[in-house]
UniProtKB/TrEMBL annotation:
Location (main, coarse): cytoplasm
GO cellular component: cytoplasm
UniProt-annotated location(s): Cytoplasm
Family membership noted in the UniProt record: Belongs to the UreD family.
Free-text function comment from the UniProt entry: Required for maturation of urease via the functional incorporation of the urease nickel metallocenter.
UniProt keyword annotations, A-Z: Chaperone, Cytoplasm, Nickel insertion
Protein name per Swiss-Prot or TrEMBL: Urease accessory protein UreD
InterPro entries given in the database record: UreD (IPR002669)
Key word Signal present: no
Subunit (UniProt): UreD, UreF and UreG form a complex that acts as a GTP-hydrolysis-dependent molecular chaperone, activating the urease apoprotein by helping to assemble the nickel containing metallocenter of UreC. The UreE protein probably delivers the nickel.
Record keyword Ubl conjugation present: no
Domain of life, source organism: Bacteria
Amino acid sequence: MRASAAVATARAADGRTVVSRLASAPPLTLRQTGPHTVHLVSTAAGPLGGDMLALDLYVAPGTTLELGSVAATLVLPGPGESELLVTAHVGAGGTLRFAPEPTVLAAGCAHRLLVRLTLEDGASAFWREEIVFGRHGEPSGRCRSRFDVTRDGLPLLRQEFTAGDPDLDSSPAVYGSARCVGTTFLTARAEEPAVAEGVAVLPLAGPGTLVSALAKDAVQLRSRLEWGERTAVADEPATAATPW
């Protein structure tokens, strides 16, 4: 299956954000759920092996877009590798919050996730990705993920990871016994690095912070990422005990 979806914002004469474009194709179906909020609704199984999916986001200067999903995404096996390409452009002074529910790698799947985020001067972004290694009681499928952030034409973040190789995943230097991995990119810059059990908050060389976490399940992963996100935007380094 080949499918693409797109959402774009525009600035109204009174300064409000309006969703100016909303285009969908199963399994990527978009529904507007608020003045500047859109949710992904799965209207078909997928991604399946061999699927080529694309999602395009455009945030006009001075506008805001929040994008989430109503449920987790289940990546299923099929003939060949599935691919999801997410391209996002945030105009000057615009704000994007991208926080879908987790992606679950079903046993036997082979998936490629590509994210290309472009930020203009003064743009802000919050981008969370959560990956679950298989359904309950099954091994993880394979996933190759690439996340590129460019700001004002210059590279800000280049990150790539793989999952689903048993020989590598079980290594204490990779995932160990963890069943989930997640990252959050924020344009807010943490004052200094911070580390707690299963989570790290790392200021980037440019204006931004990367929060990375491992966990035994999706609930713990979300808790650890949220702790890191709060730490990244705090006026002072976090000193409170972690909630897990």
